[in-house]
Amino acid sequence: MRLHAQGQSGLKPFASLFLADPWRLRADLHCHSYFSDGVCAPSELVAMAKVQGVELFALTDHDSLKGQDEARAAAEACDLAWVSGVEVSVTWANQTIHILGLGFDPHDPVFVSGLDHVRAQRLARAQAIDRSLAQAGLPGALEAALERVREPEQISRTHIARWIAGQRGYSDLREVFARYLCDGKPGDVPQAWASLRDSVGWIRAAGGVAVLAHPARYRLSPLLQHCLIEEFREAGGLALETASGSHGPREVQHFSRLASQYRLRASAGSDFHAPGESRTALGAVSLIADSVEPLWSKWAVNN
Ligand code: AMP
Ligand code: MN
Ligand code: MN
Ligand code: MN
User: Fold this and answer.
1) Of the options 3.30.70.2660, 2.60.40.2550, 3.20.20.140, 2.60.40.200, the CATH number for the domain spanning 2-118+192-301
2) At the top level of CATH, which class does the domain 124-181 belong to?
3) For position 20, what pLDDT does the model report?
């Protein structure tokens, strides 16, 4: 593998860090700020990561690069290794799939405009969810959710879920999703995000690497899971996020096995959104299994 990322990607300065054992490196390459559906500023996340002992960090907001400059500056100021990041919303086989882009040039015009296009769909989709929830007896979701975002185009189901939780007295957002927002529920409206091929293509053309996020989260038959991983790899995808805040030990093991089977690398990310809400703290992800190669193990030698 050869990474062409330079300058803005954050991949260059790590030579000394990666001379050590890459399997023992504490990486958290997946979290969210208030530029998507997290609640912390990028600089707060960097400070928390540092306190938690994270050695390699990426902020991966949904379809948005707005927090990248702040994350980079904060990471540089506290000497934390940083790579650029984003979590792209993709529709594949009528399901939403998340593809992480890491170590790309955040000013790449094609990638930036692809993400702009994906983000631009969020408000209309939230309006459709709002109408559907109103019909189901829950009016006012959109207005309330918009008060919780910095910009309308970043609105997500999480913002709506937080409002419903407050209205209906739920303490766990997963329960709100299960009752109101997941498959077959009122807030489940069809959506066509980016294609798998486009998202991976944008990331690679911008000099980055593509990672299939939290693969255990998708409800796929073993055959469809195989098709997804195959198609992801054929499109140029490089790694599975085997160590994820969404994965228990069995899922870590399962996807580590699949990563070696498909000759993919492994990545690690907490998917942290908010204190007291996310089950996994920032940085609290398992190390990469010995049987698979960490995503970052060649980053230093190739740069
Ligand atoms: P959206 O991009 O608007 O479809 O929102 C997706 C986000 O909702 C994910 O990134 C998670 O943060 C959150 N989410 C999705 N499903 C669940 C769930 N079952 N429980 C809690 N949060 C969820
Ligand atoms: Mn999210
Ligand atoms: Mn995700
Ligand atoms: Mn995420």
Assistant:
1) 3.20.20.140
2) mainly alpha
3) 72
Supply the residue whose CA is at minimum distance from atom 21 of ligand 1: 174
**Which residue owns the Cα nearest ligand 1 atom 4?**
157
Portions of the chain given CATH number 3.20.20.140: 2-118+192-301
Q: What are the distances in angstroms from CA 239 to CA 7, 96, 117, 266, 280?
A: 23, 18, 25, 5, 21
Within 10 Å of residue 79's Cβ, how many Cβ atoms?
Answer: 7
Give the closest residue to 185 by CA, choosing from 164, 199, 206. 164
**Ligand 1 atom nearest 87 alpha carbon:** 10
Atom from ligand 1 closest to the CA of residue 191:
4
3-state secondary structure of 95: strand
User: Of the bound ligands, which one is closest to the alpha carbon of residue 269?
Assistant: 4
Return the pLDDT at 301: 45
Sequence ranges of the chain with CATH classification 1.10.150.650? 124-181
User: How far, in Å, from the CA of 33 to the mean position of ligand 2?
Assistant: 9
- Which residues, including other chains, have CB under 8 Å from residue 145's CB and lie 6 or more apart? 126, 155, 159, 160, 162, 163
Block mean pLDDT (10 aa), the chain, length 303? 49 59 94 98 98 97 98 96 97 97 97 98 98 96 97 98 97 96 93 97 98 97 97 98 96 97 98 94 94 88 39
Q: What is the pLDDT of residue 80?
A: 95
Can you give the C-alpha Rg of the chain in angstroms? 18
**Closest C-alpha residue for ligand 1 atom 19:** 174
